[in-house]
TrEMBL record:
<feature type="domain" description="Gfo/Idh/MocA-like oxidoreductase C-terminal">
    <location>
        <begin position="135"/>
        <end position="324"/>
    </location>
</feature>
<dbReference type="Pfam" id="PF02894">
    <property type="entry name" value="GFO_IDH_MocA_C"/>
</dbReference>
<comment type="function">
    <text>Involved in the oxidation of myo-inositol (MI) to 2-keto-myo-inositol (2KMI or 2-inosose).</text>
</comment>
<dbReference type="InterPro" id="IPR050424">
    <property type="entry name" value="Gfo-Idh-MocA_inositol_DH"/>
</dbReference>
<dbReference type="InterPro" id="IPR036291">
    <property type="entry name" value="NAD(P)-bd_dom_sf"/>
</dbReference>
<keyword id="KW-0560">Oxidoreductase</keyword>
<protein>
    <recommendedName>
        <fullName>Inositol 2-dehydrogenase</fullName>
        <ecNumber>1.1.1.18</ecNumber>
    </recommendedName>
</protein>
<dbReference type="InterPro" id="IPR023794">
    <property type="entry name" value="MI/DCI_dehydrogenase"/>
</dbReference>
<keyword id="KW-0520">NAD</keyword>
<dbReference type="InterPro" id="IPR000683">
    <property type="entry name" value="Gfo/Idh/MocA-like_OxRdtase_N"/>
</dbReference>
<comment type="subunit">
    <text>Homotetramer.</text>
</comment>
<feature type="domain" description="Gfo/Idh/MocA-like oxidoreductase N-terminal">
    <location>
        <begin position="3"/>
        <end position="123"/>
    </location>
</feature>
<dbReference type="InterPro" id="IPR004104">
    <property type="entry name" value="Gfo/Idh/MocA-like_OxRdtase_C"/>
</dbReference>
<dbReference type="Pfam" id="PF01408">
    <property type="entry name" value="GFO_IDH_MocA"/>
</dbReference>
<comment type="similarity">
    <text>Belongs to the Gfo/Idh/MocA family.</text>
</comment>
Length: 335
């Protein structure tokens, strides 16, 4: 069965995922797309045979749409995900699932009322070969009990529309998910510290930001978010355990020697750095949707748990203090 996909939001990543479904992976085709900028939607589906519809409601309701991909900006995600659940259609939602814990809770409630799992969240790092190897080492006890982790998340630059709260909601949300997954634990408290801001930022933005997380089991995580670092896109992660450490591998690249220097290229954005992870993520999602079974990637609970933490991080950004996340117990539905 070829899974017929409808896409809501055809900006940078929406267009990437349309290209990915059309040319990189098998088993699916894009049949409909929408964007609040209709011209952008038309450009994104050019040459695919897909049609442009007026809005997300039309995409989700379309008879020939089997499954929905939500790649609009974060605050618009919850509405589309809730509409897909109401229609009983599987939905892949780019991170974040929602930008408030209340919206994420509405999604959990709706999915449980529906009675089976329909939602997958785009935490693609769980499909990255390096992170998968780290997970195997930590889970098999290869470094003993994890005590600490050190993370770095750097982007070369961000547009003026990126605001200070997005450091948590849009950027750190990846590490928040990865840490819950790698350490198999929930995050109980967070503190955001703002060092001297870089001059290379739009005036309204607090950048960089340090984030400190406390896991329920007592392990501690530090994260540098620096989205105007200029030189490239760099993701770092090291977990320190009682018996050893495990670190995310460097991205392989040719070594160039010239003019008295030895250098290797640094990726410039997430499209290249995580290309293989995005492909693996979509291959698995399409395969599972075609099989008619609930998808096994990050689910609505993972999206909710991450949003509870980003909410707390936003409160800490404003207060400077340590903020408890108050995460509740995972419902059996998501066990
Ligand atoms: P973008 O601004 O390039 O694209 C967003 C698009 O959504 C725009 O074209 C906008 O017009 C459209 N849009 C907004 N609201 C809409 C609505 N209600 N209905 C239809 N279209 C709507 O942003 P982007 O970089 O493509 O990011 C989109 C999402 O993907 C974000 O949630 C972002 O966090 C996520 N993302 C994830 C990764 C990752 O590494 N997993 C990377 C980039 C972006
Ligand atoms: P973008 O701004 O390029 O694209 C967003 C698009 O959504 C725009 O075209 C906008 O017009 C459209 N849009 C917004 N609201 C809409 C609505 N209600 N209905 C229809 N279209 C709507 O943003 P980008 O970079 O593509 O990010 C989109 C999402 O993807 C974000 O949630 C972002 O966090 C996520 N993302 C995930 C990445 C990852 O690493 N997994 C990488 C980049 C983005
Ligand atoms: C973007 O939305 C992503 O998800 C990228 O992976 C991340 O590095 C960036 O900071 C976000 O804005």
């Amino acid at each position: 069965m070829t899974v017929k996909v409808g896409v809501i939001g055809t900006g940078w990543i929406g267009a990437e995922h349309i290209r990915r479904i059309t040319t990189s992976i098998g088993g699916a085709e894009v049949v409909a797309a929408t964007d609040i900028d209709a011209d952008r939607a038309a450009r994104a589906v050019e040459g695919t045979g897909a049609r442009v519809l007026a809005d997300g409601t039309e995409v989700i309701a379309a008879d020939d749409v089997d499954a929905v991909v939500v790649t609009s900006w974060g605050p618009a995600h919850a509405e589309s995900v809730l509409a897909a659940i109401a229609e009983g259609k599987p939905v892949f939602c780019e991170k974040p699932l929602a930008t408030t814990a209340e919206d994420a809770q509405r999604i959990l409630d709706a999915e449980q009322r529906h009675g089976s799992r329909l939602v997958q969240v785009g935490f693609m790092r769980r499909f990255d070969a390096g992170y998968v190897q780290m997970k195997e080492v930590v889970s098999s006890g290869g470094i003993g009990a994890p005590l600490m982790a050190h993370c770095v998340h750097r982007n070369p630059t961000v547009p003026e529309t990126y605001h200070s709260e997005m450091a948590a909601q849009d950027t750190a949300v990846h590490e928040i998910d990865v840490m819950r997954w790698l350490l198999d634990d929930e995050i109980s408290a967070v503190q955001v510290i703002t060092p001297r801001p870089t001059g290379n930022r739009f005036e309204h933005l607090r950048d960089p930001q340090f984030m400190l997380f406390e896991m329920a089991g007592g392990a501690r995580v530090d994260l540098e978010v620096f989205v105007n670092c200029r030189y490239g896109y760099e993701i770092g992660c090291e977990v320190v355990g009682e018996e050893g450490t495990v670190r995310l591998p460097e991205i392989p690249g040719v070594v160039v020697r010239n003019s008295g220097h030895r250098s290797t290229p640094v990726p410039q954005d997430w499209t290249t750095r995580f290309a293989a992870a995005f492909d693996a993520e979509f291959e698995a999602w399409v395969r599972e949707v075609a099989a008619g079974t609930p998808t096994t990637g990050p689910n609505a609970w993972d999206g909710y748990a991450a949003t509870v933490v980003t909410d707390a991080a936003v409160r800490s950004l404003h207060s400077g203090g340590v903020v408890e996340t108050g995460i509740k117990d995972r419902p059996a539905f998501y066990a």
